[in-house]
Amino acid sequence: MGNRNKFEEFYHRLKKMFTWSYLKALIVNPGQLPIVAFLIIISELIINIIVVERVPYTEIDWKAYMQECEGFLNGTLDYSKLHGDTGPLVYPAGFVYLYSIFYFLTNQGGNIKLAQYIFIGIYLLQLYFVLRIYIKTKKVPPYVLVITILTSYRIHSIHVLRLFNDPIAVLLLYVSLNFFMDSKWYLGSIFYSLGVSVKMNILLYAPALFFFYLVNLGLKDMVVQLLVCALIQLILGLPFLIGEPYAYLKGSFDLGRVFNHTWTVNYRFLNIETFESKCFHLTLLGIHILLLFIFIPMCIKYFKSYCRLKYVQRQVQPQIDVKNRDNKLKSKLRKDSKKKSVMKQDEKLSKEQEDFLNSFENLLKKSSQKGGKQAHKKSLEIDNEETHYSINFDILSQLFILPMFIVNFIGVVCARSLHYQFYTWYFHSLPYLLWSTNFSTIMRFLILALIELCWNTYPSTNLTSALLHVCHITVIYGVYKKLSNELNIVSKLNA
Description:
It contains 20 helices and 2 strands. It is mainly alpha-helical. Strands 1-2 form a two-stranded antiparallel sheet. Strand 1 and strand 2 (87-88) form a beta hairpin. Helix 3 runs parallel beside helix 7 (142-150). Its EC number is 2.4.1.258.
């Protein structure tokens, strides 16, 4: 009897999966993203294997990375003496250790195919943590992520055809964001600092993270988390800091670095003199600071709401769990009681009694059809006995993720120069940012398509560089407008 019930339950679930309403929900309902996320990862595995096997690998920085790590492995701890074909080593110590591992795994960097398959694994792992954020926040419809993720030529190229360190830094960043969402502060801080140790661009999240610490933890615990981040950097950089600390700090955290105009994606329309001028760099820095001053107060309000609601969750969730356990126990006792009743009925009921029960059941069905509200009320009373109480607290993550994404995005927009591999810094956050605006769906997809076009145009042109800025500014304006409107509504309700 039990196996038959399980089979019927499985059959009904299977039948439901092939209904139009269920299929539609898979496409448009963010709550159905877990299933679609699994399909995205499987599809990405297949796509990336095809790319590796069919598309020729292009050498850009991998050989230089191996040369820099070879110098370290040969005993050189002076950062100023670690060089590759593309110039001096400009990344922190975490990069050196990580790519030294790749050096050994790939036969001194010679086994490119193996390195590409390692990066497939890195990309799939990154996707897992990205999609977990989207699953928790329930912000973006599944079809948007399918279209955006699967169709980006440049992102696949960056990860498996170029073997840059940017994807690894971004992977560690997304791991840290997931830990922060789960309130695992130390692990979040450790992985955030590890991301910074691979590439300095992860510091673009730092202004938002600083206030996230402060609002949620208070001054004392915020200092503790900052010390954790600093300690990771100190431990990783210690071999280089002992001998030549200035060379290490200047090489790995060079804030004054001047980029090569040849590779710029966002400032092709500027001449080289203007592009390399200190005045231009200071202007961008001023714009960056100004935008942070505009957005940070709104981010703090989001963080405060997140903190308050997390407190409510800690208070309410145990009570919900107790209630559900009680309901589950009552349901089990009721089922056991029914089974015993059925067994007794099978033993004792005569044919006349069975006929009476059947007629009584039919009478109840008729009365329920006529009774309307009364019947509905009774059914509710019965259902409540087996109700599973839950509040979707995961959606609170929206109050954390949006500020983090927008602050990083501001840093990207104000960057001195964007090279092609930098696209991975913010690509997976673009759907979230655009679905945090009041733009129409067509407008959102148009912006996504234009940004992808700009990043896929090589070499960049005056038009694509200007168009990229237009798209970026439009996204910032859209997010700002919606944020300010929502906060105004909240302030009026609280007044």
